[in-house]
Each structure stands twice: as structure tokens, then as C-alpha cells.
Amino acid sequence: MRARDRTPGEPDDGHGAEPEPAAGPGAERPESAGRAGGRAPGRAGGRRARRAAEWGQARYSGSWAENLWRRLDAVDFLSQAMVLAATLLLCAVPFLLVVSALAGRSAVAGLTQRLGLSPQAAADIGHLFASSATTSSAVTGLSWVFFVLGGLATAVSIQQLYQRVFQLPGQPWDRLRALVWLALVVGWIALGTVARRRFHANLPVLWWITTVVACVGFWWFTMWFLLAGRVAWRRLVPCAVATAAFWTGMLVVFHFTFSDMVVGNEDEYGPIGVVFSLMSFFIAIGVVIILGASTGMMWRDRGMSFRAALRRLSRPRGAR
Questions:
Q1: Which of 70, 143, 170, 234 has the fewest CB atoms within 10 Å, i.e. the most exposed one?
Q2: Do residues 163 and 170 touch, judged by C-beta distance below 8 A?
Q3: What is the pLDDT of residues 92-129, one digit of tens each?
Q4: Other Cβ atoms closer than 10 A to 199
Q5: Is residue 43 part of a domain?
Q6: Number of H helices and number of E strands within the chain?
């Protein structure tokens, strides 16, 4: 700052402006201090983020989550689920439509009951398929061959998927086993339909308990039979329980979301939108099959048990 200029003739009283203090080596400019203060919280946040990432990496390394993800990644589970979904759409759907038509039932009505579809969603799906009478009358001559081959292709796809998950090679009699399994599944579906009519409305609690137990038994037998007994029954128990749990969860989710999905896609894309919704459902089936088997294998290989898990949950929080 410059001293005040004196006018001519004005005496100098010696009270000029005080000189600015010199900036020494340790002096800090205000703008530099501001920048340093702004960088300090950013550096602290970066350190906290790095510590959190290191903690998460340490917890993840060698954990059950890493084990499970490596199994799923080795199987390429998402691609395999989409391949199975395409097989279900092209082979399983025509097969089930013909089976239901030959039994005098509607496949759409069965899907409506199991997923709790709204009337609008059921109507949208029903528009895709012909009536049961029309379907059954169309199955003649060569159609029977494609009917059987479609069901067999579905069974073989599930069989090969399990062989991939359990890292087992194929065998010469795999096709025959898949065909026998397919016949057993048809009988299982027929038995379940009859039992649902008799017990679902009168004894709903008993019906759901029986359904969950039967679901575990179904997947347990499916894995053991399609793999030709090369994996022990006891080793397959966690796989069957996990698959049944994921299957039940999938049905619950689609029970609340599938109707809106079908109606929304039909309004936006037309009839092809209903096919998109069915593909989403079939992809979920593939994910459940792979995830259930992989989770059970991880559970068994890490020496985990249901009893130990229950004991851990029952301990006080501080004692875990």
C-alpha cells in the first residue's frame, strides 16, 4: 500500500501508512491456505475409501462368496441359463402344450394357477396358443416324433447342464436316462395337478408344507438320476435344498410381478411382448438350477452344515 500523498505546503506529521509486513519463508498466503483446507477432506475421504476397499477385499478373499462366484463364473451361468431358456421355449413349451391337450387340460390354466396370473395376463397368454381340442387333433403321424424329440431335448439340456456344473463327462446311456426322467416328470405333473385340486383349497397349510418337501425330493432325485448316481445322495442334499429354496423364491417373485410384466409388455410390444415375458421366466429357471447346484456344492465343500449355521444364528451378537 502506498503512503498518502501530501499536498504542497502540508507539513509532514510523520504518520504515514504502516508498511506491509514482508512475506517470510514460513508465511502462508490466504489462497494457499484455502486450497490446502479444501484438499484435506478429499485426501481423508480417499484414504477412507481405500481402507474400505482393502477391508472388503480381505473379507471377500477366501470367503464363501468368492467360492460361489468362481463356480458360477466357471460354468458361465448367465449364458447357460439363456441357452436353457431358448430350449424351454422351443422344445418344452410345445411338449407341455401337447401333454396338457392330450390330458384334456389347458396349459395356460395350469400356468395361471401356479403363478397367480391376473385375468388380463391370462388372456394375453391364452391368445398365443390354440385350444386343447385343436392341439390334440393336430398331433398325428410325424408330429408324434417331434413331440417326443422336443421333450427329450429339454431333458438332455438339463442333464448336460448338471454335468457341466458337477464337472462330469457324458455317458453312452445319458439319452435313455433323460427319456425315463421325462416320463417320470410327466407323471409327477399329473399327480401334482390332481393333488392340488383336492388339497389346495381345503388344507392350504398342509399343501404348502408338502409342496416344499416334495420340491426338495424332486430336485434331489433329478440330480442323482440324470448324473447316473455318480454323485452320492448325501452330497446332493444341500444342492436339492438350495435349489428348492431358490425355486420357491422365484415363484413368489413372479407371483407378484409376472402379471404386470405380461400386460405391460403386451401393451408396449404386442403379442411378442408376452413371449419376452415368458423368456424372462425361463431364464430365471436356468439361473435357479445352476445357482442351486453351485450353492449346494460350495456349502458341502467348505464343510458347512445346517446345524452349525443354526448354532451361529442362536449365539449372542458379541459371542459370534
A1: 234
A2: yes
A3: 998 988 888 887 787 788 888 888 889 999 999 988 88
A4: 14
A5: no
A6: 13, 0
186-197 per-residue burial string, b: 16 or more CB within 10 A, e: under 16 = eeeeeeeeeeee
Question: What pLDDT, in 10s, does the model give residues 224-239?
Answer: 999 999 999 989 999 9
Give residue 227's identity as a one-letter amino acid code: L
pLDDT of amino acid 193:
78
Dig out the grid coordinates for 222 from the structure: 433329478
d(CA 5, CA 305): 93
pTM: 0.77
Instruction: Please count the structural domains in the chain.
Output: 1
- Quick check: is 238 in a domain? yes
Output the CA–CA distances (angstroms, integers) from residue 144 to 141, 183, 196, 271, in the order listed. 6, 15, 29, 28
What is the distance between the alpha carbons of residues 291 and 303, in angstroms, rounded to a whole number? 18
- Least Cα distance to 157 among 247, 286, 23 occurs for 286
Instruction: Take residue 62 and report the three cell numbers written for it.
Output: 477366501
Write the pLDDT tens digit of every residue in 154-180.
999 999 999 999 999 999 999 999 999
The reply to whether 251 falls in a domain is yes
Give me the pLDDT at residue 308, please.
Answer: 60
Q: Is residue 242, in this structure, part of any structural domain at all?
A: yes
For 237, the grid coordinates are 442334499
Which residues make Cβ contacts (< 8 Å) with residue 92, sequence separation at least 6? 150, 151, 154
What 3-state DSSP class applies to 109? helix
Q: Coil, helix or strand for 105?
A: coil
